[in-house]
Amino acid sequence: MTERRPTRGEHQKALAQKNKKSAPKPSKKKWFKRITLTLVAIVAVCFIGGAGLFAFYASSAPELDESLLKDPVSSEFYDKNGEIFATIGAENRKYVKYEDIPKDMINAILATEDVRFFEHGGMDFYRLGGAILANFRDGFGAQGASTLTQQVVKNSFLQNEKKLKRKAQEAWLSFKLERKYTKEEIFEMYFNKMLMSGRVYGFGTAAQYFYGKELKDLTLDEEALLAGLVQRPNAYNPLKNPELAKKRRNTVLGLMYQHGKITKAQMDEAKKVDVQAGLADDATRQKFSGSKYDAFLDVVINELEKNGDGSAMAEGIKVYTTLDPNAQQTVENIMNDDSNFPTEDIQSGVAVIDTKTGQIQAIGGGRNYGAERGFNYAYDLKHQPGSTMKPLIDYGPAIENLKWSTGQTLVDEPMNYTGSKQTITNWDNKYMGAITARKALYASRNVPAVKVLKEVGIDKAKEFVGRLGINSENVYESDAIGGGDITMSPTQMAASYAAFGNNGVYNDPYSITKIVYRDGKTTKDYTPEPNVAMSDYTAYMVTDMLRDVVGNKPDASGTAANVSGLDIAGKTGTTNYSSADFGKHNLPDTSVPDSWFAGYTSNYSIAIWSGYEKHFDPITTWDERRLPQHLFKQIMSEISQNVETSSFKKPNSVVEATIEVGSKPLKLASNFTPNEKRQTELFVRGTEPKEVSNEYAMPELSTPYNVSASLDLEGQSINISWEHDAMLNPETDEPLPTTFEVSATREGGETISLGTTDSKDIKVSNKLEDGNYTISVVAVVDGTRSKPGTTSFQISGTTDEDDKDKDKDKDKEPVSPDNPDVEEPTAPDENGNNGDNGNHNGNGNDNSGNNGNSGNTGNGNDGNGNTGGNGNNGNTGNNGTPPGNNGNNNGSKPPTTPTEPTAPDDGTGSTE
User: Fold this and answer.
1) pLDDT at 853
2) Which pLDDT score is estimated for 369?
3) Which residues does residue 349 pair with via DSSP β-bridges, in sequence order?
4) Which of 544, 585, 609, 705 is the most buried (most CB within 10 A)?
5) Which CDD domains does this one have (predicted)?
6) Taking phi first (over 0 means left), then psi (-120 to 50 degrees means alpha), and beta for anything else, what does residue 587 get?
7) pLDDT at position 795, please?
8) What is the tens place of the pLDDT at every residue in 202-223?
């Protein structure tokens, strides 16, 4: 068999496979060459494209304008109505020529901002490369590379944005600037136009503002501090943030040493100087005031800094703010009127915020506040809040997480902090025993507040206040009464309280709605997003309790803040010195460092702090303590005029129930719960109690008396009447529904029911046989029966003769039985006093002291509570009938004049 030869197709396929295997592979050198050529092509394309884009952007750059180069560009500030209220730019600026700038001042600036300034041509490519590497290593924005020339250009012509177009124009204009002006002229431009702090422009102005000196008189440490301000003018302000300022100053000194501008000995010596040692006083700085509403403007500038736009004012921006000029003017008028303050030196900070939006309407930075004062008591202050913290960290979280009622039973009693022998005291060094959460809050009791925080738990409380803008790394039991780690400003406090008046929705406080950059088109929105911080039931129930703080209840702590006609809720607060402080600083027993009041309507939330500039200059009198309340009342009254203020509305998630105070768990009050133990409180719907308390049994029903019975003339019916002292409803003082059961018992025989009635008489058909009867009347209330009131009654057979006699005597009065068994009341003894001849005008609400019919004078004591104090309300007399009347507890007492405060036992209690 011959072998099959491959076809032509198979032969060609085999040949191709052979050639493929034998073809030589490209070398690595060729591959490298290909990659290199490709990269070069890409770079060339990018370079050409970049150059073209750079040329395009550069062609649209503005022309150099010498006036803009030398002078700051003014920024404009608008109020909520769109009206300009401030313009900040070259006002009050001291212009300094280059030859008048001290050498050390020049070295400090160059070492910090641009050490190669006299070597580059506007762009420092060496520094730019280092910045690029730093940004790759540490993240974008880790290091900048702007030269002094670029900063002058940016602040003169361009807006502060990290866009390629702006960078390209900045580079091109920097190159042109270097070609047109000398290095010294450019440095002089920089030196005189940079924003140094607030509304202070230029180093020469800053020297006078911060130190009250000419540049030539500055010391090395002072020059270093000024050189470091430019990066973050407000953050490094030594008046407001001395620690940050010191750190920045020392960084500048280190850079000066690193670049050979000073020796190590000079650096070390300058670092030892107190950063606030040479600062000028307030009077020196007052001359820099150049606008209205300086305290508010300070807050706006701080907010620009906080949002990364601290230097944007030097670029000529328009700032649209939340300022209410009427509210601001009201605050300033009140703050600048010395007659509103009890002492010459006491200070206050005021923040007025829109309850619904969080917009800051007005700021009172201090008495007679001037521009660049340095410390704004409404915004910069961070002090312990005292008892104003209780709604925020105690009662709010308890209602939110545990769904507590406002009537929750709390016991005010001696108690120590957990794991400590330190006793928690109240401002009056007394304890009230079992009280409602409502009373514990409006009377500002400390022990119940700590118990509430412990019940809620630190973590949940911390989370709750965090949603109200209050962030604290640590929360302690002492924070329950505002004496722990948490500190607040009036601005933050007003915003936090506003959430209660805004159905639980919290807004960060803000003073800027938007800024518009120099081009008139680019904007930046500053309005924060609202956040739901709590349920609507929590917000309303806390609000309802805080209404009582400013109400007319005897133990309310904030009555001086009440404004007639406005639905207001609020809370007082004071802080304490420690026990050691009293001895160490020789403080009077009544001393406290801080006094607060925070209150709100549906329109405005206002928080006010009062105290002295130095912590150990104490508040010692009630006039000083109540200053925040008085200021609140004046401000809220004036700004609420001609403004519709709606009342707080109870949401559907909240219900009311009348409880028996002190019951645990809470129970409904019974008909027999005493008035002083009945309280209508709020509950989260579905948690209201269903069980009625049986703590107080129905009192014994009085026995019907003056019972009488008679036959009508024909003997066909029996008429029965009586008298009865009705039992009163303890809640309304109205008679309780009473029925009367009437029966007749024949002598030696059975008892026959004659009927039931709601009135005090009854007429029944005469179905009784002849004989002697006892007629009984029993009062019945809610199933409880009284003892019977009785009378004797006789029925005898009648004859025709009897009828004749009856006709003769029909106009005569019926003759009563010789010895009726009737419970007649004892005639009053004209000399008796009903067992209640006491004085009911004590410390409570009982001014009755009735004279009764009990025979002899009672001589007991009714205690020292809310029903009359130390009056003699005791016994019911000796064998008097009926019982003596203990008086009417519906009197009212006049407000108690507060006593001077006493020194606390410990260092953390709130001394309300």
Assistant:
1) 35
2) 86
3) 609
4) 609
5) FN3
6) beta
7) 84
8) 899 899 989 999 999 999 999 9
Q: Which residue has the tokens 């709601």?
A: 758
Which residues, other chains included, contact 4 with Cβ-Cβ below 8 Å and sequence gap of 6+?
Answer: none
Give Cβ neighbours of residue 54 (< 8 Å, ≥ 6 apart). Answer: 168, 171, 172
By three-state DSSP, how is residue 892 classified? coil
Distance CA 654, CA 812 (A): 67
Q: From residue 407, give the alpha-carbon distance in Å to each of 547, 555, 662, 693, 867.
A: 15, 16, 9, 15, 21
Q: Are 609 and 629 in contact (CB under 8 A)?
A: no
Per DSSP, the three-state class of 862 is coil
Would you say 605 and 495 are in contact if contact means Cβ atoms under 8 Å apart? yes
pLDDT tens-digit readout, 798-816: 544 444 444 444 444 444 4
In which band, very low, low, confident or very high, does the pLDDT at 309 lie, cut at 50, 70 and 90?
confident
d(CA 178, CA 35) in angstroms, rounded, equals 40
Work out the number of other CB atoms within 10 angstroms of the CB of residue 269. 15
- Give the H or E element holding residue 292: none
The reported pLDDT for the residue numbered 198 is 74
Task: Kindly report the backbone phi and psi dihedral angles of residue 473, in degrees, each rounded to the nearest multiple of 5, phi listed first.
Answer: -65, -40
| Paired tokens of 213 | 């000196």
Compute CA distances 161 → 148, 168, 528, whole Å. 17, 12, 21
Residue 442 main-chain phi, psi, to 5 deg: -75, -25
Looking at the DSSP assignment, which residues form a beta bridge with residue 78?
84, 320
Does residue 496 contact residue 472 with C-beta atoms inside 8 Å? Answer: no
Residue 5 has what pLDDT?
Answer: 60
661 in Cβ contact with 436 (< 8 Å): yes
pLDDT at 14 over 60: yes
Q: Which two tokens stand for residue 884?
A: 């003596």
Strands (E), 577-626: 594-600, 604-611
Over pLDDT 90: what percentage of the chain? Answer: 56
CA dist 296 and 373 (Å) reads 12
pLDDT given for residue 614 in this prediction: 94
Q: Angle between the 203-211 and 183-193 helix axes, to the nearest 10 degrees?
A: 40
pLDDT computed for residue 201 by the predictor: 85
Nearest to 295 by CA among 390, 241, 361, 235: 361
Of 76-85, 431-440, 712-721, give the lowest mean pLDDT range: 712-721
pLDDT of residue 52 exceeding 60: no
Q: 3-class DSSP state for residue 877?
A: coil
- Catalytic residue numbers, as ranges: 113, 387
What tokens does 560 get? 């001086």
Give the H or E element holding residue 77. strand 75-78
Tokens of 42: 């890409």
Give the separation between CA 383 and CA 483, rounded to whole angstroms.
10
Of 689, 687, 688, 695, which is closest to residue 670 (Cα–Cα)?
A: 695
Identify whether the C-beta of residue 479 lies closer than 8 Å to the C-beta of residue 465.
no
pLDDT at residue 465 above 70? Answer: yes
Supply the angle between the helices 28-59 and 164-180 in degrees, to the nearest 10.
70
Structure tokens, 121: 């041509």
Q: Which residues of 586-605 are buried (b: 16+ CB within 10 A; e: fewer)?
A: ebeebbbbbbbbbbbbbbbb
The whole-angstrom separation of Cα 570 and Cα 553 is 14
Phi (first) and psi of residue 600, to 5 degrees: -155, 150
Please name every residue paired with 741 in a beta bridge, in sequence order, or none if there are none.
756, 778
Q: HSE (CB half, 13 Å, CA atoms) of 396?
A: 30
Distance CA 696, CA 641 (A): 49
CA 249 to chain centre: 37
Alpha carbon distance 449, 433 (integer Å): 13
* 3-state DSSP assignment of residue 123: coil
Which H/E stretch holds residue 516?
strand 512-516
In this structure, is the dihedral angle defined by the CA atoms of residues 420, 426, 428 and 432, taken in order, positive or negative? negative
Cβ-contact 627, 342 below 8 angstroms: yes
Q: Are 713 and 814 in contact (CB under 8 A)?
A: no
